[in-house]
Each structure stands twice: as C-alpha cells, then as structure tokens.
C-alpha cells in the first residue's frame, strides 16, 4: 500500500510551487490506489499561523484534492518528538549547544576555511567540547540551549546506510554533510529534521515526495531512522517550479498564490495545468 503526504508549513499562502508538490504526492497515491495524507508542519509557532492552515485546506480542496482526516498538526505532538529525543539522548548522541547565532558566526569566521554543507557553514563544534561540569553550570544558570546531534559518533554507530530514490536510484547516505544538526531548537523542543522523520514513520508514509531542494536532507532523515529504529520509506524529489526568469516561486510572488489565481477567475483545472499537472 502506497501512502504519500503533503507536509506544508503554514507560514503564508500556498503558491504554484506548493500546488505542484501537493499534486505530485496526490498523483503518486492515486496512481498506486494508495492513501494521501496532509500534515501541517507548524512547530515554529512564531512563523506559523492557524489562518494559513485553514487557507491551505481551502486551497487544496478547491484544487480538487482530498485527504484523510484527522490531519496531523505537528504542534499538537511535541511529546512524540520528545520521546525520540530522549531515545537519542540515551544513546549519548546529543549535546546542549548554548551558542547564539552571533557566536556561531564568530566561530565559523575564526575557523578560517569552515566546511559548508547544504544549509550553509557547518557548526564548528564548540559546545561538543564543553566539559560535563560546564554544561551543568550553564544549564543551571538558566542559559538556553539547543540540542545537537554528535554527527561523527552517530554515523559511526549507525554504520553505512542507503536509501532509495525512485528517480535517482540507490543513494549512499551522507548525513555528515550537515555536521552536528540541531534536533531540538532553543525555542522549540524539536526541529524540522526530527519532526519530519518521526511523523513520516508514525503515519506509515511509504513514499516521501518533496522538492529537490530537500534531497540532501534525506541523508539526515535516513540516519535518524536508523538511530530510532524506524521504517524506511522510498523517496521521490520533484523539480521546483520557476517563474519566467527562472526563479523559484516563493512567498514574494503574491500574484501566483492559489488564492490570487482563484480570485482572478482561474479555474482549478487551469491552476493544475499552471502547476505542471495539465490534462487531469
Ligand atoms: N514542511 C516542509 C516545507 O514546507 C516540507 C517537509 C517535507 O516534505 O519533508 O518545506
Ligand atoms: Zn554551541
């Protein structure tokens, strides 16, 4: 049974790029007579707004999609992410990072040729080297901290890992590209990598579809699956839609939100075609 999902973050109106992503996941489920799920990735409560969640539902229905209820709302499931964190912590693979953005920028600069990963410069590892006493003292003084994964050690424990992309074939997992990723943010007891991995497993997703921009993130998710003993889905990473000048659609493209297109009198059929799913 194929189970796919569309997992938007409700930080603004959906645009044509989102429509492509949603239609892609939906088509995969339909083509396999499988199931299609919607998940709201709203762990970042400062950026996410409930009215955008409502708008997402309205836009997707209007486009002609339907999904199973109840929709999983990530902000209602922090205990699931906590349980996963505890498990990784019990393996001795997490450490508190007290650094501010500024501290990190300074460390990166000080490191000279700091290695870069898909999301920018890698965390240089300052807090990995703190003593236990220092950690305790800082925690007790009330300093806020994120939890980072000790990547080198996690990779060593997990051993070699592969995952399967249905378009690009077998992939050797290279989570070390990302360095010591944050699994729990200072302000949020989870992170994108953690929540997405836990939820795809809990929801029984068998085929994760998402944009090519998240291709490398899958390396990290594969490692987390291994550490947490989770099932490993297949993957497909779709192309990213661009405007005439070749730029990716983004929030700034107001005129290309589904809402704006609908209000301008476009039909769902026309918008599906604009999103790369014509003739359906
Ligand atoms: N919530 C993520 C986003 O809006 C996508 C998560 C995923 O599909 O893995 O970009
Ligand atoms: Zn730090």
TrEMBL record:
Record's keyword annotation contains Nucleotide-binding: yes
Gene Ontology CC terms: cytosol
NCBIfam families on file: PRK05710.1-4 (NF004315)
InterPro entries in alphabetical order: aa-tRNA-synth_I_CS (IPR001412), Glu/Gln-tRNA-synth (IPR000924), Glu/Gln-tRNA-synth_Ib_cat-dom (IPR020058), GluQ/Sye (IPR049940), Rossmann-like_a/b/a_fold (IPR014729)
Membrane-crossing residue ranges in chain numbering: none
Pfam families noted in UniProt: tRNA-synt_1c (PF00749)
PANTHER family per UniProt: GLUTAMATE--TRNA LIGASE, GLUTAMYL-Q TRNA(ASP) SYNTHETASE
Source species, domain of life: Bacteria
MF GO annotations: ATP binding; glutamate-tRNA ligase activity
This protein's UniProt keywords: Aminoacyl-tRNA synthetase, ATP-binding, Ligase, Metal-binding, Nucleotide-binding, Protein biosynthesis, Zinc
Gene Ontology biological process terms, A to Z: glutamyl-tRNA aminoacylation
Similarity comment: family membership: Belongs to the class-I aminoacyl-tRNA synthetase family.
Sequence ranges assigned to domain Glutamyl/glutaminyl-tRNA synthetase class Ib catalytic in this UniProt record: 4-269
tRNA processing keyword on record: no
Protein name: Glutamyl-Q-tRNA synthetase
């Amino acid at each position: 049974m194929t189970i796919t999902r569309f997992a938007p973050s409700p930080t603004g109106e959906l645009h044509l790029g989102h429509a492509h992503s949603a239609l892609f996941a939906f088509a995969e489920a339909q083509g396999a007579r499988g199931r299609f799920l919607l998940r709201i990735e709203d762990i970042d409560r400062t950026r996410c707004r409930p009215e955008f969640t409502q708008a997402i539902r309205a836009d997707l229905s209007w486009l002609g999609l339907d999904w199973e209820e109840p929709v999983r709302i990530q902000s209602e499931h922090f205990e699931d992410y906590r349980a996963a964190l505890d498990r990784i912590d019990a393996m001795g693979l997490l450490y508190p990072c007290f650094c501010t953005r500024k501290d990190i920028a300074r460390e990166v600069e000080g490191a000279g040729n700091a290695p870069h990963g898909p999301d920018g410069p890698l965390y240089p590892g300052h807090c990995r080297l703190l003593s236990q006493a220092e950690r305790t003292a800082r925690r007790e003084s009330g300093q806020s901290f994120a939890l980072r994964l000790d990547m080198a050690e996690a990779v060593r424990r997990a051993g070699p890992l592969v995952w399967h992309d249905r378009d690009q074939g077998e992939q050797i997992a290279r989570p070390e590209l990302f360095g010591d990723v944050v699994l729990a943010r200072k302000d949020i007891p989870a992170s994108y990598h953690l929540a997405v991995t836990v939820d795809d497993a809990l929801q029984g997703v068998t085929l994760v579809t998402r944009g090519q921009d998240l291709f490398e993130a899958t390396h990290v998710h594969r490692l987390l699956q291994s550490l947490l003993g989770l099932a490993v889905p297949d993957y497909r990473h779709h192309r990213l839609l661009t405007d005439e000048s070749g730029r990716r659609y983004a929030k700034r493209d107001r005129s290309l939100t589904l809402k704006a297109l609908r209000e301008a009198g476009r039909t769902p059929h026309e918008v599906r075609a604009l999103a790369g799913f014509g003739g359906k």
